[in-house]
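Q: Could you write out the predicted structure for this multi-component system? I'm mainly interested in how the pieces pack against one another.
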Amino acid sequence: MTSIINVNLPQQSYEIAIAPGSLEQLGQQMANLNLGKKVLVVSNPTIFKHYGERAINSLTSAGFKVVSYCLPAGERYKTLNSIQKLYDIALENRLERSSTMVALGGGVIGDMTGFAAATWLRGINVVQVPTTLLAMVDSAIGGKTGVNHPHGKNLIGAFHQPRKVLIDPEVLKTLPMREFRAGMAEVIKYGIIWDAELFAQLEASKNLNQLRYVKPEVIDAILTRSCQAKANVVSKDEKEGGLRAILNYGHTIGHAVESLTGYRLVNHGEAVAIGMVAAGQIAVALGLWQQEDTERQNALIQKAGLPTRLPEGIDIEEIIAALQLDKKVKAGKVRFILPTQIGVVKITDDVPSETIRQVLQGM
Amino acid sequence: MTSIINVNLPQQSYEIAIAPGSLEQLGQQMANLNLGKKVLVVSNPTIFKHYGERAINSLTSAGFKVVSYCLPAGERYKTLNSIQKLYDIALENRLERSSTMVALGGGVIGDMTGFAAATWLRGINVVQVPTTLLAMVDSAIGGKTGVNHPHGKNLIGAFHQPRKVLIDPEVLKTLPMREFRAGMAEVIKYGIIWDAELFAQLEASKNLNQLRYVKPEVIDAILTRSCQAKANVVSKDEKEGGLRAILNYGHTIGHAVESLTGYRLVNHGEAVAIGMVAAGQIAVALGLWQQEDTERQNALIQKAGLPTRLPEGIDIEEIIAALQLDKKVKAGKVRFILPTQIGVVKITDDVPSETIRQVLQGM
């Protein structure tokens, strides 16, 4: 299986290349992009131990001059302080405007490397080499970069499209099970918001909660159909003027849950799963969606080993207050993405707080 | 005199409005842009004392909900720490994607406010209200935003175009003389790189070094012709792929001089003046420019009360080393903008270090 998906943008289009073993071709793939010779590979210690050498060897063989730097793993290091470290490394190694940062890691590494690249010398190249399912199908595509503010996730950031996204499905083998499931939350999201066929394929497959039991053709669908969905949406609305907001299905309440649990107890995918369950029930409460469809969604979420209930002890009023911090709040109104069918959603900022409250109380 | 100059860009065009007394119309002008209601005015204590109330009253009368924040004045506060303060204020006041930051001040305030706006929620609106000549004719236009790294100026930043630039020439009355002269360096630059007629007009006027002696029609030409030059260049090359580099005439060596004198002894305009003298002499040494024209340039720089010699005690080898840190270095080669006639320059990365050294030794 080798798939190429194009992200078509007015200013700079790029390819998502999905192929087993492609990590070894990183250097060659980048050589085709006509970039400067200097490359900074950014990773975290765990990922770097597994894949750093392979990536660097490939880059070096293709004639790049490579330096690498590991940031500590974890959402709590997704801060401006980490970005300042990358600036220092960029300066020490005299990165130029034609130089490239390569993000070798999951969503946190991708977001931070992208943001450092977006803001060093007012923007240098970045190539995304995602190593988690979540990063492959979501965060590595579409140019959203950034870090957390102590009081809110991804509040600091920029749009900065990668020059290429290179996905090697083989690296999923070392992905912890919980991380795989977190990525599945975004995959299920694409089924609900965009691709009913993907949804049906997931429904028809067994053991979705453990990578090694998932059939190759399902993995193929998971990666290519998800990336295609994301690429389609981003191509139509690069900077979230309208359509792109649908990618935030499950994220409105999800972000609040993540934030209130300190980004630790509940990971991003789990929070999105909870958020999708809540959004589905809000859609039902507002008469937009069939109860039967929301149950199909929730069954799939459960089958993927993801939570469908709020974590113990979380304060519902705090969730409602935290929604006001969402980046998509407009004139104080919280924006929700709500399904109307499997594969179709609508955007609305007209959800009564009372409906949100009732749905959360039932979870 | 009221002039409107358009900056035409593929994604978002905007107007530069030049009119005496226009500070009082800020609110109305912004109301026409269909922005969200929340506005954060960013300034420094001195500027805010003079113009803060007028700006805020105008905004409030137009229906905006306004908060303001002053950053300490001076290039040494142009740091990520100051940006973090702005993020905190943005969070406390729940700025939304439709909200606007207004930069009321000189280049430092404009660059920082622009960068904070570029990176808060991945980009909110910014309106530039420049209060120094330098900011009016240069830094407020064109979307370059950023802060300094401890080891280099403007190394951290982003392109983020303003929604509007509002220039009220009356605020120049409170501008310290040295600051006025600093702005004149950029004005002279436009004469050399783009607008021979502006150059001739400046040559024909007396007492260019003191604002109150400059004739109104010359002030008019200074503002409108300079803004027009900048707008033309930026419209043709928003992100410095090629042509825009000519705006860096005098800045290659200028930046090095500024940096080596700690951004204090020599201000930006003075550094650019020194850099133009150096670039002119390099152009002559390489046989590109007439000695006579470089003398006309240097005479005009002197008439504007700007330096034409290196500051005492500066180490020429350190200047040459610092050039390697310039953002425009490509494959280790320093890029120079060199005049070939008054009003015409060329871009070259082919200047021997020895030529640079000899020219600097003569200064």
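A: Regarding packing and overall arrangement: The domain at 177-361 of chain B is CATH 1.20.1090.10 (Dehydroquinate synthase-like, alpha domain).
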